[in-house]
Structure formats: structure tokens, C-alpha cells
Write a structure and sequence with these properties.
alpha/beta; 364 residues; six-stranded mixed sheet
Length: 364
Amino acid sequence: MRILVVNAGSSSVKLRLLDAEDRVVASADLPRGEATEDREGLGSFIRHAGAIDAVGHRIVHGGPDLRESVVVTAPSMDRLRAVSELAPLHNPPALAALEEARRLLPGAPQVACFDTAFHATIPEAAAIYGLPWGWTEDWGIRRYGFHGLSHGYAARRTAELLGVKPRDLRVVTCHLGAGASLAAVEAGRSVDTTMGFTPLEGLVMATRSGSVDPGALLWIQRRGVPADELERTLDRASGLLGVSGVSSDMRVLLEAADAGHPRARLAVAVYLHRLRAGIAAMAASMGGLDALAFTGGVGEGSARIRAQACQGLGFLGVALDPARNEVSDAGDRDLSSPGARVRAVVVLAREDLEIAREVRRLLA
């Protein structure tokens, strides 16, 4: 089975065609453009890729009902459209790509794989907000968690790297990219995570605010800022970009911080403070920690962020080997100091493998 994986993000569309051995036989990373450009890019890839037996799509939010991967049908498309507003940066382009793939490949099954699905196992105590029960029961307001495809793969790959069974591992997986979240994965199951009802909760991200006192947001609305503008600002003009005023790119911010830019320094410090606090909280939810996994663009690419994130986590048993940590482009690897009680690893993000795994499971 040759599976096309379509990962439509907020800034790009990643296309990977995998063969039966999970080898990438064709790939493209297309910058997000206008809807017509996105359709043309996907269409060109499909026309030149050769045989495609099935298509797997990353869908960020499945809402309260779609909590596991599904073969796409007309009713499931309607349900997906109904929850698009919960992930406005991701779900609309993903659904547009799904509809175009269905049009171009009418004979190929289309499978929707949800970032929320991996976190369906978190206990109610971790999922429920302290809100009126009617809001929870009638409107489905609860913590769903995101980046589940990445967290699930990273947790399994960490177990492989360390030579242990997933059931014997307590790992905090750190997906650090433009979006960022943590997951506490115990015995292969997500038991806590930092994102919530939408991908806005949790860590400070590239352009997303992360957790903010809701009272502050109510105060801002009372100052006359409409909901649409507030949502746009929290999603696209906050986070590292909002604090620094320089860039949302961690590489640019680190250079600016080294050059003495005070708000770039502050943005990095705020990012790291939230990250360290989040890792400790995830470890507490499992009653301890065996491993720490870094993945995503920043998690894989920035030795400095990894090192500074681990500073102050020695009480958990985390200790990096500086030489191992500084090696770049070395693939999945253990970064730990010899004898460290908690192992720290880098895992290259492979959501495509996780999606292909789900496609094969459903179509088998």
C-alpha cells in the first residue's frame, strides 16, 4: 500500500508518499498560499507521484465526538466542518486539502487522523476545567490536547532508543515548533498535556500566547477589542513575536538576544520559564520521570534551548552531556550524561509515520 500523507499546517503543507516499507518515495513542503495555490500544489504533486492507494490527513481538532482516526465519509466531513472554528489556523486548510484529495483521487480511501485522539486517554481530573457543569456537558468545553500524532510517535521512538518497552516508561515529550506543547506519557498512554480546549493553552509559542489569565482577556474585551481581533492577536501576533517585537523564529531571537536586544532576551527567558515549569508539572502528573524527549523544529534544532530547558531540572534527574547535545544533524539520539537517572533524547518529528500507521490500521 502506497500512502500519501497530507499534513496541512498553519504555514505549510507537507506531503509525503510512503511505500509499504514506510520509505519516503516522494515528498514536498509547500508554503501555504491562497486556496487556489494550495489546490494547485497538491494537484501537481498527485499527478507526478505515481500510484496512491490511500491518503492520510492530519486534522488538528476532532472536537468532542471524533476522538480516533476515521475513514472519511460525507457525515464525518460535516462533523469536521462544524468544529473548524476550534482550530482556526489548522482545520480549515486541512479540510480544504482533504476535499481536494477526495476530488483528485475518488477511488482512494481518505483517512482523517486527529491530533486530539492520542490525548483521549487523559483522566477526567486532567481534562475538566473548573467551570459550570453545563458548559462541560452541553458545549464540550474540556481539555482535548494537541500534537498527539507527534507525541505518540516520540514516546514510542524514545522507548526504542532506550531499549525499553513503552509500558515501562514515563516520558515527557516536548513538541517544540511554531506550536509547542508537552505530554506526559505513561505506559504508552497520554495522561496529561499542556494544550487544552484549543491549541492556545499552555506554553508560549512562536505567535500564540499560551496560557493567559482569562480575566485579562475579559478586561481587554471590555476595552472594546472585538472577539475576532482578540483571537487573531492571540493566535498570530503574540508569543515570541509579541513579547520580542523582533521575530517568531527562535534562531533569530537567539541572535538578537546575543546582540543585546532586551526584549528578545526577555522573550527567550519567558519561553524557557514556561517550558521548565511545564516539564516539571507533567512529571508530577506521572509521579516521576524516566525520560525527556525533544522533537519539533526547535526541539530538534536548538541545542541551546535544550540545554537551557534542562537547567534547573536536575532535581528530576535530568542531566545532558554537553558534547552529545551540541552534535547537529545526527538523527534520533540519546543526549544524556553517563549515569543520568532520567534520559534525555532527541527524536526527529515523523508525524507521517504515525499517520501512515493509523491508515494501515483502519484499512486492514
